[in-house]
Design brief:
The protein has 182 residues and is mainly alpha-helical. It has a single domain (2-19, 62-176), classed as Alpha Horseshoe (Serine Threonine Protein Phosphatase 5, Tetratricopeptide repeat), CATH 1.25.40.10. Helix content is 68%, strand content 0%. It contains nine helices and no strands. It has helices spanning 2-24, 46-53, 64-76, 80-93, 97-109, 113-126, 131-143, 147-160, 165-176. Helix 1 (2-24) runs antiparallel to helix 9, helix 6 (113-126) runs antiparallel to helix 7 and helix 7 (131-143) packs antiparallel against helix 8 (147-160). The longest helix is centred in the N-terminal third of the chain and has 23 residues, at 2-24. It starts with a helix and ends in a 6-residue tail after the last helix. The relative contact order is 0.13.
Length: 182
Amino acid sequence: MKKDLLAGSLILIIVVIGLIYIFSRNPSSSQTTPSSSPTSSSSQNQSSKDTANQGGTKTAALSAKEYLEKALTAYQEKNFSEALSYLAQSIAKTPSAEAYNLWGNILRDQGKRNEAKEKYQKAISLDSHWVAAYLNLAAIYQDENNFDAAKKTLEDGLSANPGNTDLQNALDILNLSPTNSG
C-alpha cells in the first residue's frame, strides 16, 4: 500500500513538472518553439485581426500555431474532440513536437496509453529538445511500473538537453523511488 502511494506521488510530481515546463514555454513569452512564427504577439492579436478583416477583406486562415492554441484551450476545457479537430488542422499545416505532445496528453487522459506513448515518441522525433514529451512518456512508463523504460527516456532526454533541471529532477526522483529497486 505504501509503495503504491509513493509511486502515485512520484507520477503526480512528474506530471506537475511536465505541466510547469509546458506552461513556462507559453507562446506569449520571449522563447519560441520550432513551430512559432517570428512575431511574438501574433496569437494574442488573432481576435482583433479576424475582426479587422471582416470589414470587407477575406479572413485569413489560421496558422498552425493558432490552431494549436485553440487545441490547447479546448484541451484545458476537457473538450477532447474539439482539441483533436484543431490539432489535426495544426499538424496538417506544420507538424510540431508541441502538437504531438498535446495529442499524447489527450490520449493519455482518455486512457489510451499505448497511443499516447506513440505521440510522445513522435514529438521527440520532431524536436529532441521538447522536454515535456520526455517527461510525459517517462510518467506513463513509470505508471506502468516499467522503471527501466522511464529511466532510459529521462536519460535520453538529458542526453539531448544536457543540464535540464526538470529532466534531472524527474530522474533523481525515479532513482530514489523504493519501487524502483533493480
